[in-house]
């Protein structure tokens, strides 16, 4: 089965699949983003998973803000796609463009693909955001960029790019990390962003500036 992104998907981000059974996740999460790179025995945890909420598996590389070394990283992700509950995977656009993910993408034909690019330093100009999202969309079901907004203008560039791609019919997911762009997590879905990420417990954030799941669900719900 593959996770569909034709409407907004709120993902509970976690290194611990036990979070899927948490009442807040049960109420609000459409998916669990399992951060394999932050987990101790990710493949064993996936094998044991018997929850009903579909999993979006991420094995974030060290060079993209995660904790997975490149040794066996994409192979572990490929293995994750053979587990029943895994319905989508996140693959770094850079790995795809370097032709390192060809085998993974071949193995992962039955699950949805999110191609992602992160900027922990700042926000590229609007035209570059559009270019990156367009490129990512050629290789995936959802094109994702997470940037670090340093100004309100940065957040507007991100939202504007989100709107443009969405109006064009592309599925994109966008968010600004950090404090300045925090509100984009609530607002980007209004402009078409298809995925939101939030930890069940605010202390377990997987990126700077995340709201906890209950708060983000409430904010997004109130803007519906
Ligand atoms: O890429 C993303 C988005 C994210 O970085 C965020 O800003 O919410 C959180 C990560 O867990 C996820 O893989």
UniProtKB/TrEMBL annotation:
EC number assigned by the record: 4.2.1.10
InterPro entries xrefs: Aldolase_TIM, DHquinase_I, Type-I_3-dehydroquinase
| Record carries keyword Lyase | yes
Tell me a GO biological process for this protein: aromatic amino acid family biosynthetic process
Q: Which reaction does it catalyse?
A: 3-dehydroquinate = 3-dehydroshikimate + H2O
Q: In which pathway does it act?
A: Metabolic intermediate biosynthesis; chorismate biosynthesis; chorismate from D-erythrose 4-phosphate and phosphoenolpyruvate: step 3/7
State the CDD domains in the record. Answer: DHQase_I (cd00502)
**Protein keywords:** Amino-acid biosynthesis, Aromatic amino acid biosynthesis, Lyase, Schiff base
Catalytic residues as annotated in Swiss-Prot or TrEMBL:
118 (proton donor/acceptor), 144 (schiff-base intermediate with substrate)
Signal peptide positions are none
Residue positions binding 3-dehydroquinate: 33-35, 60, 185, 206, 210
UniProt cross-references to Pfam families, sorted A to Z: DHquinase_I
Instruction: Name a GO molecular-function annotation.
Output: 3-dehydroquinate dehydratase activity
Family stated for the protein in its record: Belongs to the type-I 3-dehydroquinase family.
Q: How does the record describe its quaternary structure?
A: Homodimer.
| Role summary | Involved in the third step of the chorismate pathway, which leads to the biosynthesis of aromatic amino acids. Catalyzes the cis-dehydration of 3-dehydroquinate (DHQ) and introduces the first double bond of the aromatic ring to yield 3-dehydroshikimate.
List the protein's name. 3-dehydroquinate dehydratase
Starting at the broadest rank, the lineage of the source organism is: Archaea, Methanobacteriati, Methanobacteriota, Stenosarchaea group, Halobacteria
